[in-house]
Design brief:
With about 475 residues, the chain is an alpha/beta fold. Helices cover about 50% and strands about 5% of the residues. It is built from 19 helices and 8 strands. An 8-stranded mixed beta sheet has the order 3-2-1-4-5-6-7-8, sandwiched between helices. The termini are far apart.
């Protein structure tokens, strides 16, 4: 019986392309799919002549694997992953490795790492980003879980991963427990933000500036050769230039309701759990929710009035402003994402390497962009950097972009064009640079109606006070705590 280097379960788009990627890099792969006819079709089609072994049961799959067995699961997150792992266990032995490569919630990977360790099985929860093309040609891979498993999968993962221009693999060990899937979740949250900001820029060009798709195509082509050089700007350029067979712009025929699979929402919830202001990504998630209210929006458009104004400035200069605004907002998006990773890493004691994460995102993944190299440089210079906005490179970039950024938001408000993510980015920036926020009034309000106490600027931090604001409340105060 022939023995494979690794097994893979789930021959959907990502699974199938990962298998071909592994085979192209010299690894033998045993494959299984719940609908076994899919295995036969794959072997007769794209996998023909390659070092790929088809199997028709989990028992047969495991029998074809070298020890320690390495089994990668590429199925829908949640209950399906649980069922596959449960079905696999009878055919595994201590020291074998189970890899979940789907978009699982990171707390599930924390639990699976511990539960499988009790059975002697090593678990890896790994984020895989890059879509169909990335899976085939080189994705970004973010593994975490049981460190004992890493030496056994490292040669495979780093071989098939995307490479930087310097040849570095966009794959490195992230951390224990759910660290890998957590970093992938934050990646997806930043992806939500990037996509929404690009869409807001497109809306301003189309509605505010009355630009044609061809004109916008030219702008995004130019932008992709500068500081905004990135995968998402690149594909936006291509989408704007795409036509149906009859010459109609395909983009104009697509219904304006966005879908989502939940990773952006998970990122926002995680930020709320650890008290981090992930405002931009939160707005990106809510923008998708608002887009889904299509019928209500159509009705509202016929009832609710907005400003009756048109853009009267220099269109070319304003497009230049849009480029700066998008770039500055993108910096804030990453700053917030890294702020969340730092907070969670400290809470979970993961010891995340932020420069290495930027390297993992430098190629293969959906948010890959030129300025990830600058993020890596920032954390290599200062591993304890509390916020990307405080790095000299990004501080200077924001300084250059700031006037344009403010003009864009002011113009959007004047024209009645929604830019929730880009405006949230500017609001965060202004809040973060503000030495004194109005939270003193908020604390006074909380103390007034609920005796929640407050700290004073003329006393040391950690001392709490209560005022009997009405003269009827007495001296009893509520306990002090933060959720």
């Amino acid at each position: 019986m022939s023995h494979a280097d690794i097994g893979l379960i789930g021959l959907a788009v990502m699974g199938e392309n990962l298998v071909l990627n592994m085979a192209d890099h010299g690894f033998s792969v045993a494959v299984f799919n719940r609908t076994t006819s899919r295995v036969d079709e794959f072997l007769a089609g794209r996998a023909a002549g390659k070092s790929i072994i088809g199997t028709h049961s989990l028992e047969e799959l495991c029998a074809h694997l070298k020890r320690p067995r390495r089994v990668m699961i590429m199925v829908k997150a949640g209950v399906v992953v649980e069922k596959v792992i449960e079905s696999l266990l009878p055919f595994l032995e201590p020291g074998d490795i189970v890899i979940d490569g789907g978009n699982s919630k990171f707390p599930d990977s924390v639990r699976r790492t511990d539960e499988l360790a009790e059975k002697g099985i090593l678990f890896i929860g790994t984020g895989v980003s890059g879509g169909e093309e990335g899976a085939l040609k080189g994705p970004s891979i973010m593994p975490g879980g049981n460190l004992l498993a890493w030496p056994f999968v490292k040669p495979i993962f780093q071989a098939i991963a995307a490479k930087t221009d310097q040849g570095e693999p966009c794959c490195e060990w992230v951390g224990r427990g759910g660290a890998g899937h957590f970093v992938k979740m934050v990646h997806n949250g930043i992806e939500y933000g990037d996509m929404q900001m690009i869409c807001e820029t497109y809306q301003m060009m189309k509605v505010g500036l009355s630009m044609s798709n061809d004109e916008m195509h030219e702008v995004f082509t130019r932008w992709n050769q500068g500081v905004l050089d990135s995968y998402l700007v690149e594909i936006t350029r291509d989408i704007l230039g795409y036509r149906d067979e009859d010459g109609t712009a395909t983009l104009d025929l697509i219904l304006d309701t966005a879908g989502q699979k939940g990773t952006g929402k998970w990122t926002a919830i995680a930020a709320l759990d650890v008290g981090q202001p992930l405002t931009l990504i939160g707005e990106a998630v809510f923008a998708r929710c608002l887009s889904a209210l299509k019928d209500e929006r159509v009705t509202a458009s016929q009832v609710l009035a907005g400003p009756n104004t048109t853009f009267e400035g220099d269109r070319n200069m304003f497009v230049h402003d849009l480029e700066h605004a998008l770039y500055a907002s993108k910096i804030v998006s990453y700053a917030q994402g890294y702020q969340l990773m730092r907070a969670m890493s400290e809470e979970k004691d993961w010891g995340l390497d932020y420069g290495a994460i930027a390297l993992m995102w430098r190629g293969g993944c959906i948010i890959r962009s030129v300025f990830l190299g600058n993020i890596r440089d920032a954390f290599e210079k200062n591993p304890d950097l509390s916020n990307l906005l405080l790095d000299p490179f990004f501080e200077a970039a924001i300084k250059i972009a700031q006037e344009s950024w403010r003009r864009v938001i002011a113009t959007a408000v004047t024209l009645g064009i929604p830019m929730p993510a880009i405006s949230a980015a500017l609001a965060y920036y202004d809040g973060y640079r503000c030495e004194r926020l109005p939270a003193n009034l908020l604390q006074a309000q909380r103390d007034f109606f609920g005796a929640h106490t407050y700290e004073r600027v003329d006393n040391p931090r950690g001392e709490f006070f209560h005022t009997n604001w009405t003269g009827r409340g007495g001296k009893t105060a509520s306990s002090t705590y933060n959720v």
